[in-house]
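Notes from hallway chat w/ T.B., transcribed later so I don't forget. T.B. wanted the structure written out for a chain they're using in a teaching module, and asked if we could keep both sequence and structure tokens in one place. Agreed to drop them here.
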Amino acid sequence: MNSPGADAIPTPRRVRICRPAFQDMHHLVMPRLAARAQLRRQAMKLRFWTRGEARVADLDCMQIPDEELFIVTVTDGFGLADGFHVVFCEEPIPEPDGTLCVLSVMRIDEPFSDAAIEILRSREVVARERLRGWVASRDL
């Protein structure tokens, strides 16, 4: 019988891609359906991410300073750009391991300006409230 240890495979977490992130992929980033599907597959690698890790699978991950927002970098631009940042937040409920909410997809050359950070914070608030509302209605 094996005991859990360093070699244990982490339990996959739930990853929700918020509507604004899908809209980012469609309108701002990737007009081609095949490219959007590939980016979604990349984002689903977040199921195996845990806070504090600098990598998940083959993707680099970091926290935006002074924020509860995280970025995973997809270096393949699928023929459309140099790469993309997938911005997400972690919601500790409802599962014990929490849920990750993808908030935005940005081109790698887009700066994280004050205005962009404010938009991301707003998306985070909406995503958290919707997730908590969904959990509350599910538990009724």
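Follow-up for T.B.: Residues 114-139 form the longest helix (26 residues). Might be a good example for the class.
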